[in-house]
Specification:
Elements lengths: L1 E5 L8 H12 L5 E6 L4 H6 L9 H5 L5 H4 L1 E2 L5 E4 L4 H11 L8 H6 L8 E6 L5 H7 L4 E6 L10 H18 L7 E9 L3 H14 L8 E2 L21 H16 L1
Parallel strand pairs: 1-5, 1-6, 2-4, 2-5, 6-7, 7-8
Antiparallel strand pairs: 3-4
Bound molecules: adenosine-5'-diphosphate and magnesium ion.
Magnesium ion binds next to α1.
C-alpha cells in the first residue's frame, strides 16, 4: 500500500491532470483511492458534474459523515474518489483556530483505517503551503512534484520556484520532526521540442539525477478536456500523452 501526493507550490504545472490519469491507469490493476485535497475541486469535477452535492473530504475530516458517505465509486472499476469542494476553505480556517488535537494529523487519522482497502492512494493537492499540505505530507509515502518548462530561463521559472518551495517545506517538516523522511520524485510535464524544454530537462536531470522520473509527459496542443470535460487522456492510447501516462504508471508501479 502506497500513498502518493502530487504537490507543488505552483499552480498549472499538471498536478490535477497527472493525479487523475495515474489514478485511472493504476486502477487497471490495483485498487485505487483518489483524494481531492484542493478546495477548487478540479479532480472531483472531472468525475462528477454534481460534485457540489457530494459529501467528501471536508465532511470526512470533520467526522460529520461516514467513510461510506464520503468515498464514491467512479465510472472506472477499482477507482474510488473522496471529492472536494469550496467548503474545504472553511475547514482550513477552522483547523487554523482549533485549540484541540493535532491538526496536521487529521487526514492521517481518517485514512489509517481505510488504507487496508487500497493498493494506492493518490492525493491531488492545491498549490499553497499550509495545513492541508502538512496533512498530506503526514500521510504520504512519496511526493511527486510536476515541473513544466514555463520560462526561457531556470531563474525566471515559476514551476522551478514552486518545486523549490515544496522541497524546502518537506525539508522543514523533516527537521521539525513532523515526518521521518520523504521519498520524492520530479516529473517533467508539458515538454516539447523547444530549447526551453530541453534546458529544463538538462538542468533537472543533471542536478536531481535519479529523483527525476524517466517518463516525461509531453505537451498536448489539443485541449486536454473533452466536451465532457473529463480529461482522461490515459484512455486514449493512440495519443502521445496517453502513451506517456501509461509509461508513467508502469514506472510508478516499478518504484514500489
Ligand atoms: N501535458 C499537457 N499538455 C498540455 N496541456 C496540459 C498538460 N497537462 C495539463 N495541461 C493543462 O494545463 C492546465 C493546468 O493543468 P492542471 O493539471 O489543472 O494543473 P494544476 O493542478 O497543477 O493546477 C489545464 O488547463 C490542463 O488541461
Ligand atoms: Mg489542480
Amino acid at each position: 500500500m502506497k500513498t502518493i501526493s502530487l504537490m507543488s507550490a505552483k499552480g498549472g504545472c499538471s498536478k490535477t491532470t497527472t493525479s487523475i490519469n495515474i489514478a485511472v491507469g493504476l486502477a487497471k490493476n490495483n485498487k485505487v483511492l483518489l483524494i481531492d485535497l484542493d478546495p477548487q475541486g478540479n479532480s472531483s469535477k472531472r468525475f462528477f458534474t454534481n460534485y457540489l452535492e457530494l459529501d467528501g473530504i471536508c465532511e470526512l475530516l470533520r467526522k460529520e459523515k461516514s467513510n461510506e458517505e464520503c468515498i464514491h465509486h467512479t465510472q472506472f472499476d477499482n477507482l474510488d474518489i473522496i471529492p472536494s469542494k469550496r467548503n474545504l476553505f472553511v475547514l482550513k480556517k477552522e483547523m487554523l483556530y482549533a485549540s484541540h488535537g493535532i491538526q496536521q494529523l487529521r487526514l492521517k487519522n481518517v485514512l489509517d483505517p481505510i488504507k487496508k482497502d487500497y493498493d494506492y492512494i493518490i492525493i491531488d493537492n492545491h498549490p499553497d503551503i499550509d495545513l492541508l499540505i502538512s496533512n498530506a505530507l503526514l500521510c504520504s509515502d512519496m511526493v511527486i512534484i510536476p515541473v513544466n518548462p514555463d520560462a526561457d530561463s531556470i531563474e525566471l521559472s515559476d514551476s522551478i520556484e514552486g518545486m523549490n518551495l515544496t522541497l524546502a517545506n518537506i525539508k522543514e517538516a523533516i527537521e521539525e520532526g513532523e515526518i521521518g523522511g520523504m521519498d520524492f520524485r520530479i516529473l517533467l510535464t508539458m515538454t516539447d521540442n523547444t530549447k526551453a524544454s530541453r534546458m529544463f530537462e538538462e538542468y533537472l536531470r543533471s542536478d536531481y539525477g535519479e529523483y527525476v522520473l524517466q517518463t516525461n509527459i509531453n505537451y498536448q496542443s489539443a485541449p486536454i478536456k473533452n466536451k465532457d470535460r473529463s480529461g482522461f487522456v490515459i484512455e486514449k492510447d493512440d495519443t502521445r500523452i496517453g502513451q506517456n501516462y501509461q509509461l508513467l504508471v508502469d514506472e510508478i508501479r516499478s518504484l514500489s
